[in-house]
Amino acid sequence: MIGNPEDMMVEAVKRATRRANPALEKLLEVHLRLNANAGFELAYRDPKRFKDFVNRLFGEYSGRLLEMLIVDEIKRMLEIGEDLENLEKAVEILRMIV
Predict the structure, then answer these.
(1) 5-97 CATH fold
(2) CB 3.0 to 4.6 Å from 9: which of 28, 44, 65, 70, for a disulfide?
(3) In a 10 Å sphere around its CB, with 0-12 CB exposed, 13-18 middle and 19+ buried, how is residue 48 labelled?
(4) pLDDT (tens digit, 9 = 90+) per residue, 34-91?
């Protein structure tokens, strides 16, 4: 298991994008680097801003789907059954647990 909460979030984003479609990982990474001057760590550092960039790239529906996949990956990594509704709550849990 990855111990650093930010690293865990980055890994969760990578896993989620691969689950959705392996091509999405690079696409999202390039989009974030060009437009947000950040990488997947933005999901941990500023989840709302991360979601805004994801929604701009993929649309609101697909952005929400990716968010749910990321949250699911966090739950798997932490081995928790807690009902997490969104990325912000997942980051809050990561900051408390890890």
Answers:
(1) 1.10.1200
(2) 44
(3) exposed
(4) 999 999 999 999 999 999 999 999 999 999 999 999 999 999 998 888 788 899 999 9
Structural domain boundaries in the chain = 5-97
93 contacts 77 by C-beta, under 8 angstroms:
no
How much is the pLDDT for 98? 63
SS3 assignment for the chain: CCCCHHHHHHHHHHHHHHHHCHHHHHHHHHHHHHHCCCCCCHHHHCHHHHHHHHHHHHCHHHHHHHHHHHHHHHHHHHCCCCCCCCHHHHHHHHHHHC
